Amino acid sequence: MSAILLDGNAIAARIREGLRARVEALRRAGRPPFLVAVQAGKDPASAIYLRNQRRLCEENGVGYRLDDLPADASLDAVLDHLDALGRDPSVTGVIVQRPLPPQVPARALQAAIPPVKDVEGTNPANLGMVIYGRPTLVTCTALSVMAMIREARVPLRGAEAVVVGHSEIAGKPTALLLLDELATVTVCHIGTRDLALHTRRADILVVAVGKPGLVRADMVKKGALIVDVGINRVGNRTVGDVDEGARDVAGFLTPVPGGVGPVTVTTLLRNTVECARVQAGLPAWQEG
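^ thats the sequence. predicted structure below, dont judge the formating
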């Protein structure tokens, strides 16, 4: 029997539905959410994502602006721009679009965005609150992974969870969120000697590496829940990090495309609204 596919588009639609009352409450409070995206140089691969950002914001009553900086902008120039946005009370959320030019390292910018405007959840203060188990603004990818897991209604307490990939926006925060749910978590990475040894015992398997076909069907426990975060272009196809043959083994699987991707884009909108709520002194979002 093939795995049950978790529909990311349907989950994203439900998240957006839940945002409407929050956006209206912010408007009544005189704190309408307003997102500014900052881009240094034009990258063709980013164009679609930026268009989706604008469309999603406009469709859901959230203000949006794209600030284009030159590709040769210095690190100091970008930091000055972020500082101005941080001090602008009309701007409630800021995102820095990647990839960045080589003279502007992403890590140098993470602390430059005030924690209350950090829609990507990568400011050290926000990452630190995830470690403390008191998250407010969490990386969009990690929140999306947890939304997919909740959709499958798989018990987390005591479950064997394996996260493949240890990036700051996906693997690490996802592992911490799973730990908070009392799952037993293993994180695999480039230094892992025998990946299959770990993945075969996973009740919940999260793969976020960016390598097509990394996890094969024979590396998956029968009936496991697989969350495939990878988005890779192979020829004219978009594929994940998990080989399609895993559908015949897994119990639940997120498809690529149509799985984690739509939820991640919508979670950016969720975090934009949450930033405005925090600044307005309204109660924090309660995840369902």
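The first strand starts at residue 4 and ends at 5.
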